[in-house]
Amino acid sequence: MTDKELLEHAAKAAKFDFVPSKDGGIGWIGGILHKPWNPLRDDGDALRLAVKMKMDIVIGQSVKVVCVINDHNVSRVILPLDEDPYATTRRAIVMAAAGIEG
Hints:
The protein is of the alpha+beta class.
């Protein structure tokens, strides 16, 4: 799955009005006025996504994210921390929102 597809799935699960950008790097959310949105690269966007989706996040030797997608589906993501723990945490949040187990 590409990052663009991952963002689309996460935005849909969070019920964001998501419009992918033409460059494939970011998308846009909002109603009439759209703003840039890329929780894979932006800590604030990732945190807002985690809060909206009511995620449980635990960070130790790895990052563990649990997200209830709907009443019947729970997404669990565990990724080992690497040289950029912030990027790993953002990716785990987006994967959990998109319903991608990891």
